Amino acid sequence: MNNNTDNKWGILYCPKGGIISTPQKRWERIETALHDQHIVYDKIQSESVGSVERLIKMMINNGYKTIVIVGGDSALNDAVNCLMQVEQKVRDGIVLGVIPNGMMNDFAHFWGFDEGEIEQTIAWLKQGRVRKIDLGCIRYVNKKNERCHRYFLNCVNVGLIAAIMNLRRQTRHIFGSRTLSFFFSFILLIFQRMEYAMHIKINTDEIKRKVMTVCIGNAAGYGQTPNAVPYNGLLDVSVVYHPEMTQLFEGIYLFLKGKFLNHRSVHPFRTREIVFEEAEHALVGVDGRLMSGAPVGAFKVTVEQEVVNFLIPG
Length: 314
Known about the structure:
This protein is an alpha+beta fold. It has 9 helices and 16 strands. β5 and β6 (147-152) form a beta hairpin.
């Protein structure tokens, strides 16, 4: 083990693209805050989305005990999937932190971290308050008939919202605002009246009917599983049947007000495991990013309790 890295932060900086962002100025502000807090660190910058996992593996192999992601939900997702590939005794010695800087930063928001409060975020991270958090895991077979799995911090979406999250990621470049980008994404897709034939098993319940969207949340799930917390060993599930057109707009209103579960078409569950026997032609998103190798046939989502050390506000 390289002792020189024991007390250093390993910082992975993922610049945020888009027409409204100024990555260099933002990094300079972060750098100033790190200096003011007398934090010793090494910084690596990701050159592409696909480079995050490789760079996190490099940090782990080089013995960094504190790894801080300056990025969003996707970068965090890559980081925890890297951590879950190493032995537990190695993983238990590593602490993961985040300075929100992505297109979507909902897991950071869950804890109260804010993109605009860089100095506060870094001061909190320096305090070193650690909580062991749960991860969800989707297990599936891909087109090559290989058994695969992917961990998630926030949620898995199956159906319409996976498509919206994909559009939201693109429209965020244009609109900047999370709420605006989600709203316009919703409007773009709302008239397609998407629904999918699904066969789902949750606890003792069995759902076999057309469903618009399902969200399985380890945390707030972009507002669809608002009561979920990543430290109770359970997943919250919201199953949304196809509402009438007037109810769709009511659904948007309740979503924006944080009262999504109050909608009559939303059916909430809490479970340790959910099995999709069938989800015909439905898109699947993991932490806001569409899965590249979509599941073929049945797949299941489970939770693993207290598996990653995460820095939370002091």
